[in-house]
Amino acid sequence: MVGTGHTVDSRPRALVGWRMLSLLYDLLPVIALWFLVAVPFILLDAALHGDVRHNIAPYSVLWWMQWLACWGATGLYATLSWRRGGQTLGMRPWRLRVTDVVGETPAWRTLWMRYGIGCLSLVAAGAGFWWAWFDRDRLTWHDRYSGTRTLRMPKRGLRAADAGGDRVADD
């Protein structure tokens, strides 16, 4: 990364607790996204059945299409966020950032692989996340197999508060 004075290897690794906190925080915008994605499916179901007082039938084609759309929308949220700024909304408060092994922005294919393996990890009761406690490099499954790294960025240093040169801490 240009101008930061840090290399990828000198930054502390993101711990499992920070990752879990960021996932919990990211659940809020993702649920809102799911509500938006579900609207056309609910309207289509109501139009097909003429009844707005029921749910989409579990395991029906429409139900599977809705969940696939929600999964895809969540993937777009994550990969666009990682690609644009290295962080999702949930990663920002804890200063987590996704990079490739040399500290650059990962490629789209890499980010989608990371997302897919991360989903499998969650389905497996978070085993891929817990794995970071045992991995020699403290990498999760999705970091290891996609060639990405989740780093905890250092706190910002002091900055000039005004033209007078007074200095205040950012954090």
UniProtKB/TrEMBL annotation:
It is a multi-pass membrane protein. Residues 14-147 form the RDD domain. It comes from the Bacteria. The keyword NAD does not apply. The lineage of its organism: Bacteria, Pseudomonadati, Pseudomonadota, Gammaproteobacteria, Lysobacterales. InterPro entries: Pra-immunoreactive, RDD. This is RDD family protein. Keywords: Cell membrane, Membrane, Transmembrane, Transmembrane helix.
